[in-house]
Amino acid sequence: MSSQPTPPVPGTATAVQVSSSVFPTKFHHPLNPLTPDEVSAISSTILKSMVEKHGTDQFAVKFVTCMLQPPPKRAVLAHLGIPLAPGAKPEAATPIARRADVDFLDVLRGLAYNVVLELDKGTWSIQKLTLLPEGVQPQITVEELIECEDIVRNDKTVQKLAAEVGA
After folding, report:
1. If pLDDT is split at 50, 70 and 90, which confidence band does 56 have?
2. Dihedrals φ, ψ of 18, to 5°?
3. What percentage of the chain's residues is helix, strand, coil (to nearest 5)?
4. Dihedrals phi, psi of 65, to nearest 5 degrees
């Protein structure tokens, strides 16, 4: 590994978002991405579940992804009052459940999980917790990509081969 610390990965936010410390209990548009407060609440729900399962000193979690699980298109169109066909009337809107899809690693045991959570009356709850089969893992993280790049760039063989081709 490189002797220099890996620089932080730049964010994608265009402005600073201050946490309201009040978790949202409803959404304005069914396809709005999860807010930072929702991600925090989701993470807390998963951590509490892991504490109940393993105790406080026996787990370490690394979150890989945390994203909105989009609702069915038909439900979104009904929610927005958009008809399914030109000239038709929109379907009656039905309640849309806000769901999140999370991948995380149990770093101590080398296990990978996928979790589906649902927001109900302001509280996120786990609907489905799936242990991924051995050999299956979530996508590579940005931090892992940067670490791989550092390892490859510092490899003497790679440096020699790159010099030979003029890179």
Report:
1. confident
2. -90, 135
3. 30, 20, 50
4. -140, 150
Q: Which residue shows structure tokens 């548009």?
A: 29
Distances (CA, A) of 13 to 10, 23, 36, 70, 85: 9, 20, 11, 21, 37
Is the CB of residue 151 less than 8 Å from the CB of residue 145?
Answer: no
Token pair recorded at residue 90: 């929109």
pLDDT category of residue 70 using cuts at 50, 70 and 90: very high
Which residue's entry shows tokens 């770093």? 107
Contact 117, 100 (CB under 8 A): yes
Domains by residue range for the chain, with CATH: 36-134 (3.10.450.40), 137-167 (no CATH)
pTM attached to this predicted model: 0.73
Bridge partners of residue 103, in order along the sequence: 65, 114
Q: In degrees rounded to 5, what are phi and psi of residue 156?
A: -60, -40
CB of 147 closer than 8 Å to CB of 1: yes
Which residues on adjacent β-strands are paired with residue 119?
Answer: 98, 124
Kindly report the backbone phi and psi dihedral angles of residue 164, in degrees, each rounded to the nearest multiple of 5, phi listed first. Answer: -65, -35
